[in-house]
Each structure stands twice: as C-alpha cells, then as structure tokens.
Amino acid sequence: MPSADKTTVHQDRSVVPPTRRDEIAAAGSELIGGPAGRWAWSGGGRVTPVKVVALVAIGMFALGMVQKVPCYNWAWFRGANSQYTHACYSDIPHLFLGRGFADNLVPYFDRLSGDMEYLEYPVLTGLFMELASWLTPGGSIQYREQMYWMVNAGMLMICAAVIAVCVTRTHRRRPWDALLVALAPAFALTATINWDLLAVALTAAAMLMWSRGRALAFGVLIGLATAAKLYPVLLLGPLFVLCWRAGRFREYGAALLAAAGSWLAVNLPVMLLAPEGWKKFYTFSQERQIDFGSFWLIITQRTGRSMEVGAVNAYAMLLMLLASAGIAALALTAPRRPRFAQLAFLIVAAFILTNKVYSPQYVLWLVPLAALARPRWRDFLVWQACEVLYFLGIWMYLAYTNGGDEHKGLPTEGYQLAIALHLLGTLYLCALVVRDILMPERDGVRRDGSDDPSGGVLDGAEDVFVLGQAAALDRHVAQTERGPRVEWGARPPGAA
C-alpha cells in the first residue's frame, strides 16, 4: 500500500466523519457535492476542520449581520415597531445612548440619568462595551449609533470565531461536530442582539482547556466568563460531582481557586472604587420582574394574576436547586460516568428553563454545549427550529403590543405558543442527553471507544465513588474483570 494511503487510513481511524455516522449530515452534504472523500480527513493539507469551521462561522455571522440591515439603515431610528416587524432589533445601538457611552460616561462610576442609575451588566461586559465606544468614530448621533453597532459586531465576530475554533478542538476525534455551532441558524440570528458572545467564547475556551487537562487555565477562563455573564459559574457544579465520582479533587480545587482568583481580579477594583455601580447587575437581576420568554410569563398571562418578584425569585431558586440535585444524582448513579459536556448542557438548560426571563440571545449559551453534549444533526435542528420560531415570535409579539390600534403581529396567545415551543424544544434535547447518560451505549460520542473527550483528567479515569445501581455494577465489573476491589475510603487488606 502506498504511503499516502496509509496516512489516509490512519486519519480515517482518528477522525470521525459526520457524513459517515449521521444520516442528516450525509443528506445535507449533497448540497456541496456529497459526503467528503478520503482527502478531506488528511491533517496535513491546507483544508483543515479548524479552518473550515471558522470560515463557516464567520460567514454565518456575516449573514446574521445582513439580516440586521433594515434596522441598521433606518428601523432603529424611525420607530420602535419597525425593528420588530423586520425582526432586526439589537440592544447595542440603543444602549450606546441609553447607558451614557455616547456622552463618554464611565461605566459603574458615573451615574446615569433615569431610573437605571448605573450600567446593569457585569464588569467584563462593561469593559467590552466601553472599549467599543472608544473605537467608535465621531459624527452625528445616528451615525455614531450605527458605528457603535458595527464596531461591536466586529468584536463579536472575533468571539464567534473563537467559539468555533474551541469547539472544533475540544473533541479531538470529532472536530466536524463544531459545524453544528457554525451553521446554527439561531446563533446567526441572535449573535448581535447583545454582548453574550463574549461570555460564550470564554466558556468555550475554558472547556477546551479542561479537555486538555489544564485545570488552572480552565479556572481562570471560567472566572473571566463569570465576570462577563453569570451562567458560566454553573459549570463548576457538575464538574465537582464528576470529580467527586472520579476522585479528582486536586484538579477541581485548582480550577475552583483559579476561577475565584480571576473573577476577583476583574471585579475587585470596581467593587472597591465604585461599589454602587458594581452591585447594580446583581440588584437588577433580583429586582427584575417576570419578563419575556419564561413559563412564569405564561402563568401570569393565563391566570391574570401578578406574582411578587420576591416569590418568583424564591420559586425559581427552589426549582433550580431541585434540578441541580437531580443532575447530581444522575451523575453519581449513571451506569457510566457522564461526559462533562452532557452535564454542562443540562445545568445551563435548567437555569434557562427555570429563570424568570428568557431573552432570545440566551440560546447562544447552549449552542456550543449542545454540539459537544449531543452532536446529532436531526435533534439539534429540531431544537434550533423551535428557537428560530421563538426568535420570530417575540418580535412579532412586540410589534403587536407596540403597534397601537393596528395590532399587526402576534397576539398574546400566539406568543405563549412560541414560548411553549422554546421550552419544549429545550426539554426535548435535555431528555435525549439524559437518555444518553442512562444508556451510554446510545451515546454517539462514545461509539468509537472514547470515554469523555471534553473531560480532561476525567477521560478514562476510574470511578472511586458511585451510588445505587452504578455502585452494584461497578462492584460486579471489579470482581469479574479486575478481582476484588478496594472501596473508596476503605482500608486495604492487610493494612495496619
């Protein structure tokens, strides 16, 4: 056999091509000439998965920018309803003026006019917003708002490319799964609504570092991501349970300390010098009323009864604690230790499902985690279809409620259906991930013999603490394959 063929065979075994494992991917590949041939998997050529996925992600991001053209040209400035009917709304140009960036106010330090008083975003996101304002050229206020959005879009495009590259490299043998992220329609549609991509990029980079066994780097990046958005800190919960099951407390401790250190390094200066401005994000999150996209909104609209924000906060916290306990129990009782990406997806999805607000760009939090947790095109696209319908639903609902007597758009009952589709789509994907955990033989990532490609030190680690049926199964395997097994915490035979 020629050497080139040997190289090809080796690469075929090391890289899992989705067009040979996924019927939807294979069918979709017909649009570009059919499933990839042997040269597509050669690692030495100019065309590599990282380059392809990054370029596709940038291309889809650009299409998302094109979708915002009606607003960029006139709808942001001509009237509120136009930006809803064209589904091109973005917080970015509005907050340029509304949060003092147009007046060169310093976030967290300078008080704003109106009810908000201070910028209601975490410190690292505020720094991102301020940096964009420094790069925005002068001119009329409308021109500056346009340029501020454009500058932010350029910076967020870099974040999108970082996400694509990190997801591509996290699962070494499945780099093409990152096309799920690059081609996700909801990703392109929501990327420039707000600044969430900064936290998503840092979280994706953290997942990559953990997959390489770099606990300190993972912790630093998770801490920075939490300084940009609150949700990344949730990943430390399931990671603790997995490290508990595998007995990897040292690595978890390093990650936890690094996360706390990097978060403090970013927050402490603002916390000390501008405490009122710094805490605005946290007080705003607590005081915020029931808002768009949540099942709480459906309840209040259907019953016609309002709920006190304190009660909603307590109920939402209770539901989140119950979901977290369920995920922990699942991790400790599953017949095989779940993959880190699976539990990361479940914990963030639980937060989204129980929260009192769901902005359409929150889907960005889940897209990379979904691609790593369950890289199946059919189920991913079903979920994405639900999210796209919700994206359209919220703007049509706002068009209906802000359109005066015309009432052009989606009435309340239609918007409630859009919320239900979003909730059901997310629950559907969660159910499939849970099924994969309970039936690991159905987990597509593990069909090639992999254990936990995104698990870092957990990949291939032996369990030291399990519960329920998993404990019984583990003891049976230990006795039949490895001989008598010393239980975790027990004294070895013959020890003094």
Structure summary:
This protein is mainly alpha-helical.
Notes on the structure:
The protein is mostly helical. It has one domain. The protein is built from 24 helices and no strands. Helix 4 runs antiparallel to helix 9. The longest helix is centred in the first third of the chain and has 30 residues. Keywords: Cell membrane, Membrane, Transferase, Transmembrane, Transmembrane helix. It is found in: Cell membrane.
What's the helix and strand layout?
Layout: H1 3-14, H2 18-21, H3 23-28, H4 49-67, H5 69-78, H6 80-85, H7 91-98, H8 123-135, H9 141-170, H10 179-182, H11 185-190, H12 196-211, H13 215-226, H14 236-246, H15 249-273, H16 275-278, H17 280-287, H18 295-303, H19 309-333, H20 340-354, H21 363-373, H22 377-401, H23 412-438, H24 468-482
Helix pairs in contact: 4-9, 7-9, 8-9, 9-12, 12-13, 12-21, 13-15, 14-15, 14-19, 14-20, 18-23, 19-20, 20-21, 20-23, 22-23
Region (Disordered): 477-496
Keywords: Cell membrane, Membrane, Transferase, Transmembrane, Transmembrane helix
Membrane topology: Multi-pass membrane protein
Whole-number count of domains:
1
The largest pleated sheet is described as: none
Distance between the termini: 60 Å
Order of helices and strands: HHHHHHHHHHHHHHHHHHHHHHHH
Secondary structure category: mainly alpha
- Kindly state the mean pLDDT as a whole number? 88
Identify the overall geometry. Answer: globular
Share in helix = 55-70%
Q: Which parts are unreliable, with pLDDT below 50 for 5 consecutive residues or more?
A: 1-13, 476-496
- Regarding quaternary structure, what we see is single chain
What proportion strand?
under 5%
Radius of gyration: 24 Å
Number of strands: 0
With helices defined by DSSP (H or I, 4 residues minimum), what is the helix count?
Answer: 24
